[in-house]
Amino acid sequence: MSFPRVVLRAGRSCSTMPTRAFSVKSVVRNAAEPTYKAPALGVNKTFDEALKVIAEDKAKRLADIKSMEAALAQLVKAAPSAAKDTEIAALKEKIFKQEAYAEINDPEIQWQFKNNKNVDMSKAVFRFMKSKQFKRETLPLIQQRTTQMFVTPDLLPAFTPSVNVQLDFGAGSIPEGTKVVDGYFETGSYLLPGKTVVEPKVNVTSFHPEQRYYTVALVDPDMPDVENETYKQQLHWLIANVPLSATQTELSKENADVVLSYLAPHPPKGTKYHRYTLILAEQPNAGQDKVQMDASAISRETTLRDLCSHFKLEVKGLTFFRQVWDKNVSRIYKEILQQDEPVYGNQPKVDELLDETGQKKKKFIHM
Amino acid sequence: MSSPFARTALKAANLMRAGAPSTPKKGGGTSLNGEPRNDLIKKVLFDAPPRPPVRFSSEDMTRHETIERAWKLVRQQQKQAQEEGLAKKFEMMRKANAELEATSSQLFKHSQTKERHAVFPRQLRTLTDTPPKQVWNYREPAATPAPKA
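Predict the joint structure of the above. Result:
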């Protein structure tokens, strides 16, 4: 390297000279634009070449997709065999990945995804990017909260959620100071009983383009069971045959079967916090089968494990919030449940060193 | 050339040319036997102001990210081509070996194994630091090894 060579450099040289930047900081001088504005050509030659490389790669991948789709058509027509289904699935997965990689390098697609504008989940690239984002950002948090609060060993065996579920109880339902992710409360947050009386809007982010049927259940695993000196589960809400897909993200009761209507969460006084868990279980045959839930066979005391094993449901998504007794719970008992409100407490402590009369027990007998 | 170290090197050159005596010594304990080199090093490292961070507008940032993606793509394609080439070579080698195995099992075994008891030539002259007194005997001819039958 030629040692003392005076190099005249302009102040903001990024546009005129392609420098190898080691610390690049983006300064957003103007507010986020409403529509994508493509960067001007002819300013940075490397950028123009980059666009050519990306376009070439895209063309190659699209050609590859065409040949793979032809191969898939052939495979579908071929004679059925044991390996055929797995081969078809593998080929479909390859086609999906190629479709995603073909468009992922487009700066417009990147801008759209970053700013959440025109994110069309029917396109493979956006489904791919969203699933990656879910696995990277949302999933670790859900897993951590679920294991920390012991939701998984108590209600279900440990599993990895593949679908993102979020609840919205309306405006003002999230208390001050709660962490909010994408406009929804973080998994495991505390909510007030007064704000969860009405049923929530359930938003589901799934990554399959085809429609599948799910079962939605809201369970409270922390209801005290005094006779057995343990806790019992209570089903607060059960809806079967909910159609969901990457484009169909909201739960609507019109298209589904409500087996148990929504019952407001009511943690009794004297108990510790209750974990109200909403699970999303895929119905059998990869979500294609509809399930007939007999209202007489299912009660609010049915456990989740029994429900899933009986109807062969596979749990794919989970979220939960916590609640503690409040004066509004008394109102819920009076108005909605129309029961006497139970109050729980500890057993009175027995001092082993005193006898029934309250006197100190004699150690020795006078012979 | 726009090396990231050009600026620091330039600064060092200027400082070295200016020389140490113009500025007073710091602390005094660094220059050993009157040598100002440590002072100079400290001056270059700590007194030279750091480079300001490169600031990009959002348009430039988009360009930068696109360039990075395209470069990754190129590297990926190169690696893919290399892997394919290697895979082809391996396949040809494997086929050749399979054919040899089918042709002659003795030749195949000989091709797949190495002599286990091979040793360095024991007739080698021991290496020394200095040459011998008589480097080469020009009178007698060199002893050639007996040709193998």
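Residues 1-21 of chain A have pLDDT under 50 and may be disordered.
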